[in-house]
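User: Round two. Same drill as before: sequence, then structure, for each protein.

Assistant: Same drill it is. First protein:
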Amino acid sequence: MNQNIIFYGNEEILSSLFKKGSETDIRYYNYKIAGNEVTFLFPFKFPERIQPLVNACSVANKAVVAVNQLDRSVGEFILSLDYYEIKSLGFIGEENVFNQMKKLVAPLGIDIFHMSGKYEDFEKFVSSGTPSPRKSTIVVIDQSFPVRGTGTVSLGFVLGGQIRKHMVMKSYPSGKSVDIKNIQVMDVDVDTAEPFTRVGIAYRNTELEDVPKGSILYDSDSMSSAETIRLTVRRNPAVNVTPNIGDKVQLNFLFNNINAEISDISDQIYLLDLDRKAPVLDVPYSITNLNSTPRLLGAGKPAD
């Protein structure tokens, strides 16, 4: 199965083994490993900014970390894996640091693999188990731009279902319908694209403002959105920062980072008033406070 792997640490390992693709506040590396289309997401603006980290985690299904010591940034990285339900972690580093990391992630239910940083180890890691994709068809857009002679083109990730040429989808937040004219995977034209695949999409008669960064393409009119969202929030017990009613925070999901205010807390149920409407999806939403340490306060899914 194709995979999206978030990577943190020594970027030279990626650049020496894999093909560098596009770049925003995340660098993308692409390669075909063990028959799978694999995209590595390197949020190089982290730890300075938390958004690239949570954006990358929101579309990843595995992670690799390459560090020589555990520090606050590594802790925030591991916290993000926990909140975004990423349960498979490759570690590149010394044996003693690996043992420390193993103790750190064991209570989180994260499976950890010691890797050398050689291609063969990445091949084994990619071949290990992969979580099941979402059933509903969703594409998350991280870049859109005009191409002369083609029109609007987007880069993004298929997170569930299957997309195909000539498919008409709805776009959040614009609300516009978009008609897929062409699909590429690793610069090769394809008729369809499966879950956990990074894709390039060209459209018919679609403008840039119809599919900006953070757009979510979906195949159903049933996706609801709201300016207030209720989440069942899980907080890591190691985090000492306690959110309070009235706190100004950000709600992070699928390359969206929306300013919000906590208007109510009842047990694990948090009510957030948002600056703009957000879709109500069965995906993890994280809550961040840019002025706290750590910045990740918790995460959860919409309450019933």
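Second protein:
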Amino acid sequence: MSEPVISVIVATLGTRFTELKRMLETLENQTYKHFEVIIVLQNEQDYWSDILTTYHVQTKLVITSKRGLSKARNIGLSHATGDIITFGDDDCWYDAATFSHVVASFQTGKDVISLNMYDPDRQKFGRRQRIQTATYLTKRELMSRSSIEIFVKRCCLEANQHGPRIRFDEVFGLGGDYISGEENIFLADLHRQSYRTYFHPELLVYHAVRPRLTRLTTEQVVSKGPLFKRMYNAPTAFVLLSVFCLKKRQTKLFWKVLKEMWNYQPRGER
């Protein structure tokens, strides 16, 4: 049996030269060599074709004028040929053995796995470590995952007996109508089709962890209503939104957020 191929989809504006080169170097150093890198360059000026030839990894450069993180990842998915898909940021990087451990986990029957984001410079995780042991995540726990932590079998994303194909909802994510939540929706859509996410707290993907904001922006708060409605349904979203606004002390924005949730009509792929 042939070894599974990993497709690493990287959406980038192409301006983070140092960071993307670091990522490519850590990919070049992977002990597991069966992977491809698909770089979706959201910039009509091609700075990268010549640079990519200096790395001993299989790369595809896709240039698009379309802006938006979810759009770029969906474009990358259309070019992916691997058995396992992951979505790297241009400023994340990996330990040399990461892909070997990922493949070993999938070989035990997993459909979706999540790594753990960690900043080795600040020695901080991307979020509080409430889950200390490897386990399947509940739908609620999917809210805390980041896109760069996700690895998924490509067959789970295509239309099959479980449901329609799954892609990123382009209304959400940087460059969309709402600035975040696209990875939570992506995992929730997989969960809805009975593909559960298995969390490996011991497997790390490296990324700078910025200091936590003491106060959310209005844009971030307003996006929560549509996000909850997209992931659940209107009644559940109302309850979650009420709890969120109370917990985050955003009661002054409650009616504005509620109106945004009410007006939002899910149109992403389900």
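Helices lie at 17-28, 49-52, 69-79, 98-106, 182-192, 218-231, 234-247, 254-263.

User: Perfect.
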